[in-house]
Specification:
Elements (H helix, E strand, L loop, with lengths): L6 H107 L4 E11 L17 H13 L4 E4 L2 E2 L6 E4 L2 E4 L2 E4 L2 E6 L2 H8 L5 H7 L3 E12 L7
Antiparallel strand pairs: 1-7, 1-8, 2-3, 2-7, 4-5, 5-6
Family: Belongs to the UPF0749 family.
Pfam families: DUF881 (PF05949)
Protein name: DUF881 domain-containing protein
């Protein structure tokens, strides 16, 4: 008799092989999936530890550079403002000095024009006619003339006199002095000799200027005028009521 295979046995063998292969493929698939997942995780970790860190570092570096530039700009702005403040302070100081100079100049002009009363130390210069010599041909050679008075006044003003008076009458910028014989007329008022010229200022400076060698005093003495100097006197002069 011929041996015949049992169909049921063949089917069971095929099913067993299919199951085995399925398990094998399932395991392989799981292994592949796990390997792929692990690879993706490693790549993500690499990107985080590499690329992300680099980007973060670049961002911080950019912010630092930007802050440094801002600080530099602020320092330059602060320096400019400090220079501006110094210029303002210097300008204010100079303006203050100019205002002080202007005030002093205005005060000096008021003294010169006689608007303000003045008081202070100064120099008193007295001019007297010389002793008459009967043998002299011209008696005017021994008389004080307005030119002598002008010499003294001009020298005193040049030396810094703040105010000047003649025989107690204060003179100003428009004053006129005229000699009429033995008397002189100051702004319409006549005065006989001797003539006392008072000047307010630094006594030592005023006296030195009058006594300069070859200066005013020597010229007056050569013209037979008797000159007397009295420095350091306290002198007071009232303000002029009106200007002529």
């Amino acid at each position: 008799m011929k041996n015949r295979q049992n169909p049921n046995r063949i089917n069971r063998a095929s099913i067993s092989k299919s199951i085995v292969f399925s398990l094998v493929f399932l395991v392989l698939g799981f292994i592949l999936a796990y390997s792929y997942s692990l690879s993706q995780a490693e790549q993500a970790a690499e990107e985080f530890t590499g690329g992300a860190f680099f980007e973060e570092e670049e961002r911080f570096r950019g912010e630092l550079i930007e802050q440094q530039e801002r600080n530099k700009s602020l320092r330059e702005e602060l320096q400019e403002k400090q220079i501006t403040i110094q210029e303002y302070e210097k300008s204010f100081s100079n303006s203050e000095n100019r205002f002080t100079d202007y005030a002093e100049e205005a005060d000096a002009l008021r003294r010169y024009t006689g608007i303000l009363p003045v008081e202070g130390s100064g120099l008193k210069v007295t001019l007297q006619d010389g002793e008459y010599d009967a043998n002299s041909v011209n008696p005017n050679d021994y008389i004080v003339h307005e030119s002598h008075v002008f010499q003294v006044i001009n020298e005193l003003y040049i030396s810094g006199a703040q105010a000047i008076s003649i025989n107690g009458q204060r003179i100003h910028g428009n004053s006129y002095i005229v000699c009429t014989g033995p008397v002189i007329t100051v702004d319409g008022v006549q005065y006989p000799a001797p003539f006392t010229i008072e000047a307010i200022g630094k006594p030592e400076v005023l006296e030195s200027s009058i006594k300069l060698s070859g200066g005013v005093m020597d010229q007056l003495v050569n013209d037979n005028v008797i000159v007397t100097l009295d420095a350091g006197q306290k002198i007071s002069m009232p303000a002029l009521l009106s200007e002529s």
